[in-house]
Hints:
This protein is of the alpha/beta class. It has one domain: 2,3-Dihydroxybiphenyl 1,2-Dioxygenase, domain 1, CATH 3.10.180. 21% of the residues lie in helices and 31% in strands. The protein contains 2 helices and 8 strands, in the order E-H-E-E-E-E-H-E-E-E. The strands form 2 sheets. Strands 1-4-3-2 form a 4-stranded mixed β-sheet, with helices on one face. The longest helix has 14 residues, at 15-28. The relative contact order is 0.19.
Amino acid sequence: MSLRLDHLTILSRDPEVSAAFYGLLLPKLGFVQKKPSIWANDSGLHIQFGAAHPETRDYERYGAGLNHFGFTAPSVDMVEALAAQMEAAGHVARLQRFPGGTVAVFLPDPDGLRVEVSWYPPGTPPVD
């Protein structure tokens, strides 16, 4: 039996800035805002947002813990359009093309946690 991932909780230093970033990004990925700090998609994945405790350390890209999380896009065009839309809104959007044909955009949130949106050629696993 395999279990389905049902939620992620993301804590930020500035919840208002984080809400603006994810409020722009998540609808483009098929999420709907259910409550002020909770978004969900039609697959049942919920993302909850909150404030980090001030005495905690900042996120470190290669530190222990979550490095990034990724979504599968239906097309290269969607990945490219998302990168352009996020850049136009003033966010960093690192578009990459990998050997084998995978196209991905990496979108760091205001605290540095990266959201990846990728298109994979048929038969290509998301991680290997």
